Amino acid sequence: MTADAFAGTPDSAKTFFGQPRGLATLFMTEMWERFSFYGMRALLVLYLTAPQTQGYPPGPGLGFSDGDAAAIYGSYNALVYVLPLAGGWLADKIWGARRSVLAGGIIIAAGHFSMALPAETMFWLGLLLIAGGTGLLKPNISAIVGHLYTPDDTRRDAGFSIFYMGINLGAFLAPLVTGYLQINYGWHWGFAAAGIGMCLGLVQYVLGRKNLGDAGMKPSAKATPAELRKAGRIALISTAVVAAVAVVDAVLFGWDAADVTTMLTVIILVLPVIYFVRLMRAPMTPVERSRVKAFAALFLAAVVFWGIYDQAGSTLSVFTQQWIDRDVFGFEVPTAWFQSINPIFIIMFAPVFAWIWMKLANRAPSLPLKFAIAMVGIGLSFLIMLPPAAAADNGQQSSALWIVTVYLIQTWAELLLSPTGLSATTELAPAGYGSQMLALWFLAVAVGDSIAGQVLRALDDAAYTTIFAVFGIAAVLVSLVMFALIRPIRRLMSGIH
């Protein structure tokens, strides 16, 4: 790919915090999309577990057990992050990243407004629409960010860190708004607010498109007619197989949410295996093939990281609702508001980390070292929950400072792994596979969340001390493996730091 392909801003004299001006447009678009996503997610498990007899406000929930709700939450999150595989392919082969982002945002907004209607069928339809729209938007907006920079631009990591701050600004504001509406007016008002946020993001994206130049306008590797026919056959066969399994299960065993999440987990576990095998067989240079192997090692670490990290909206949310003292000077803080703690820490520390990486430049820790340290952090964040978990097992509440500490540690770990992982993915991707590699990066979240959901279902009756210990120890063990593999991974990265 030539340097011209990265010239995303028409006027290099105009900058955004020292970055290409187009980053401002993408920053604001992603901020509002994440407002919609995290605003809904802050309510999701609480709505699933709320009694069906609960009065207004906030109104009746769906009455699932904690374990089943965690599995549904994990499967939904997994679907959100597995569909970028299709979204990345559509962008790379047919639409281009720019049109994919616009279409995705429209579908996401429709999903949130579906959930705003007080009907259970519309709730499930809304979840599917949001997942599908996110599959189009999420990988491709990050791909456009990558196209704003030339391959040797040292601002790249800092630019992704600033972009990441926009994500978390939306994630900070959303639970405050949707949580307030849920407590005072009901669940569906909160879901509607998430849809309004996505609409604001779409308006901003359209108005700011002039700042993006040609970035993401065209497919990076336009599909041939043969590729289109093959993709159509794969889609039809996959749909038929899934439908057949669903019908057989419904007839023989009765259809329920547990079956859906189990089926999704199996599919999601198979996908990365197939995808990596196909990717390794694709025509590419020896250096590109070596970098894909390095990416595979980072992918496995990211699976464990995100499976634990995303318990903020599941295990930690339910624990906060039941076993954290939320009283502050006579005011009971809504549980959803705790979802804003991590984003505000990101907003505080993302500029610090960006400054550190810019200051250190080539002396900064290598990517695999950052991943190893991040794994230590995510494991520690759950291990320090053992004292309040022991108190909960004895029927006692604990201070909210425990949850605040967890999110602080997770923030530092996230800033080591996530923005640098996004940036490295755009660098490690073979030519013509930019959006698809970013989709594969997000697939690590899908795999982690789906596995974590099934583990939590299996541990549905376990003590909280067991739950936190299992996840914490798993992360620490993976961190030890990552420390041992730092040098081999660096060699495979072939010159990328």
What does this molecule look like?
Helix 4 packs antiparallel against helix 5. The strands form two sheets. A two-stranded antiparallel ribbon has the order 1-2. A hairpin with a 2-residue loop joins strand 3 and strand 4 (331-332). The longest helix has 30 residues, at 156-185. It is built from 18 helices and four strands. Mean pLDDT is 88; it is low at 1-12. The protein has 497 residues and is mostly helical. The radius of gyration is 22 Å and the shape is globular. It has helices at 22-49, 66-82, 84-95, 97-115, 120-147, 156-185, 187-207, 225-253, 257-281, 286-309, 315-323, 341-360, 367-383, 386-393, 401-428, 434-458, 464-484, 486-492, and strands at 15-16, 19-20, 327-328, 331-332.
Q: Percentage of helical residues? A: over 70%
Q: Which class best fits the helix and strand makeup? A: mainly alpha
Share of residues in strands:
under 5%
Mean pLDDT: 88
Q: What's the count of strands?
A: 4
- The radius of gyration over CA amounts to 22 Å
Q: Which regions contain 5 or more consecutive residues with pLDDT less than 50?
A: 1-12
Output the helix-strand order: EEHHHHHHHHHHHEEHHHHHHH
Specify the overall morphology.
globular
Span of the ends, CA to CA: 20 Å
**What oligomeric state do the depicted chains represent?**
single chain
Largest sheet: 2 strands, antiparallel
Strand order of the largest sheet: 1-2
Task: Please give the count of helices.
Answer: 18
Labels describing this entry:
497 residues, mainly alpha, two-stranded antiparallel ribbon, two-stranded antiparallel sheet, 4 strands, 74% helix
